[in-house]
Amino acid sequence: MNRRTRMRVALASTFPTLLAVPVICLLAAVGAVPWALLLALPVALVVHAASSFFLLKPRPSETGSGCTSTV
Predict the structure, then answer these.
(1) C-alpha to C-alpha distance for 8 and 61, rounded to whole angstroms
(2) Fewest beta carbons within 10 Å, which of 1, 6, 7, 66?
(3) How far apart are CA 11 and CA 45, in angstroms?
């Protein structure tokens, strides 16, 4: 999987969390959740996207070891 595809998948995986923004804004406006939660949401999105991006990195077993073995 190339870097561009990994980036797209990582960003797409944050979409459900991004849908929670209007709900959290509404809940913060009525006082059900603290406003600090809105400040934590961008951090959570970045951490989620970064972890997804690095988890999608190909492992050495998938790409081959790079050495040829002779018997």
Answers:
(1) 23
(2) 66
(3) 9
